[in-house]
Amino acid sequence: MMRTLVRVSEQLKTLSKEETHNSTIQSPSQADVAVYKAIKSAPESAKYPHAARWYKHIASFEDEFATLSGDASKPYTAYGPDEAEVTETPAKAPAAEEGADEDEVDLFGSDDEEEDAEAVRVREERLAAYREKKAAKPKVAAKSVVTMDVKPWDDETDMAALEAAVRGIEKDGLVWGASKLVPVGFGIKKLQINLVIEDEKISLSDLEEEIQAFEDYVQSTDIAAMQKL
């Protein structure tokens, strides 16, 4: 992980000025996506402060990765040097290298405090817009398919009237389905009826009580089967 991160950090330093500008202030490219996926997890901010800030920024575009500009088929190794020297304290570069890197473009750091503040503001605005968009998505209602048995008092019970009474119960989140009469013995048949309910809107226990209130027809009710949609 450490070797990969340092290598990626070196590759990030070699990105073009246009890619650097886009990844820190405007929109990232497929180069950022390839490097982001190669890192796999957020860098330690204590050791890699600039990389950690860049990683958090690119993460805010995760839902848009497929639409970003650039060649998505290129591996992260296509962006930067083939080899990177791993040091035990990557956050502290040798003095000689610091001097050599002074003319290079800094992907993450900036001496311009106003520019840093602007980058933070843009990132926070985009994060807020993403959260708002995600929260606005309609939630899918949880539903269940239920098979209910409704037992009559005896073989003389008017089953057509019993079923009509049951289907007469109308509620938001309740849809009655197919039904059939199932023999239970001694010439008695029970009504077996299917229904679909929205779990947050319909209580099966309350529905059973309402059906059992048809005392002229109904002796008892049972839930024969139930499964989530």
TrEMBL record:
InterPro entries: eEF-1beta-like_sf, EF-1_beta_acid_region_euk, EF1B_bsu/dsu, EF1B_bsu/dsu_GNE, Glutathione-S-Trfase_C_sf, Transl_elong_EF1B/ribsomal_bS6, Transl_elong_EF1B_B/D_CS
Protein name as annotated: Translation elongation factor EF1B beta/delta subunit guanine nucleotide exchange domain-containing protein
Disordered: region residues: 76-118
Keywords (A to Z) from UniProt: Elongation factor, Protein biosynthesis
SMART domains assigned to the protein according to its UniProt record, in alphabetical order: EF-1_beta_acid, EF1_GNE
GO molecular function per UniProt: guanyl-nucleotide exchange factor activity; translation elongation factor activity
Top-rank lineage group of the source organism: Eukaryota
Lineage: Eukaryota, Fungi, Dikarya, Ascomycota, Pezizomycotina
Keyword Protein biosynthesis set for record: yes
